[in-house]
Amino acid sequence: MCFHFLYQASSNTLRFVGFEGESAQRCKARLERHQRTAERAAKALAEKNMRDLLALKEQAEKNRLAEALDVEVKRWSSGKEGNLRALLSTLQYILGPDSGWQPIPLTEVITSAAVKKAYRKATLCVHPDKLQQRGASIQKKYICEKVFDLLKEAWHKFNSEER
């Protein structure tokens, strides 16, 4: 007769349950499958806990940096709120030289098509998911999140005025 484990959550224990007529080989396979499943679940839980811990640390670091970085973003965007062309033409000042952003002169974003093209490039450069993939620093992620939000607001205003 073969036995396998049955977990009882109410008592937090393992209980053996047998099946009549089950071969020893089948019983062994069932036990091994149970062990593999338990190991995968434990590994997945450990990985999830590690990701959660890293996210908490990153959020704490963001909160610590927020005050100084907010001043920097406000200084850059001051007087340009809602003006997509002005934001796009000065983006290099907030992103810095290592961002990969190529400066765009104001004279190159006169037509709607040019503004749309520049906006698409800018959102690819500062999009939070893209930064995550590139492994950007917490400081860079925070600045880009704020810039992304400002660009998005200006884009909506630009679209509503162009129609």
TrEMBL record:
Keyword Glycosyltransferase: no
PROSITE patterns named in the record: DNAJ_2
GO biological process entries: clathrin coat disassembly; clathrin-dependent endocytosis
Domain J: 99-163
InterPro entries referenced in this protein's UniProt entry, alphabetically: DnaJ_domain, J_dom_sf
Gene3D superfamilies referenced in this protein's UniProt entry, alphabetically: DnaJ domain
Keyword Coiled coil belongs to the record: yes
Coiled coil regions in record: 24-63
Keywords from the named record: Coiled coil
GO MF annotation terms: clathrin binding
SUPFAM superfamilies referenced in this protein's UniProt entry, alphabetically: Chaperone J-domain
GO cellular component term of the entry, any: vesicle
PANTHER family xrefs: AUXILIN/CYCLIN G-ASSOCIATED KINASE-RELATED, CHAPERONE DNAJ-DOMAIN SUPERFAMILY PROTEIN
Protein name in the entry: J domain-containing protein
Species name: Rhododendron griersonianum
